[in-house]
Amino acid sequence: MQKSGILFLLLFILSVSVFSQKRSLLQTTNSYFELVRPKFEGKEAYETVAFVEKYWRVAGNTGFNNTVYRISSKLEEAGYVLEEDATNEDRLTYRIETRKWKDPPGNPWMDLFKLLGKRRNCWTFPPIGI
Which of 14, 26, 65, 86 has its CB 3.0 to 4.6 Å from that of 90, i.e. a possible disulfide? Predict the structure, then answer.
């Protein structure tokens, strides 16, 4: 009985400390949200989605790359500097990572498969019948 009482007390103390930490975290983040919320507009989000949805995006293909370049231009408009061009005084930086591909990524309308001895377009964009 004494062991279960000690265990209960330990669990109670732990739960109280966890809840008290969450409260201080909320107090800290709320002040940042109050500063940032007025800067966000739905218009920019809609424009970004309208641009992105035009493309089939797989890392490294045309749609993906165009999306990355659009976002990087928006970052530069907001004062960010490409990491490789940044100086010690630049606080807002971004980078675009690249990787070497064994096989280059394609676009759906470029992928050709050999089916039943015939070359046929298996993917098209926008989708149309085969």
Answer: 86
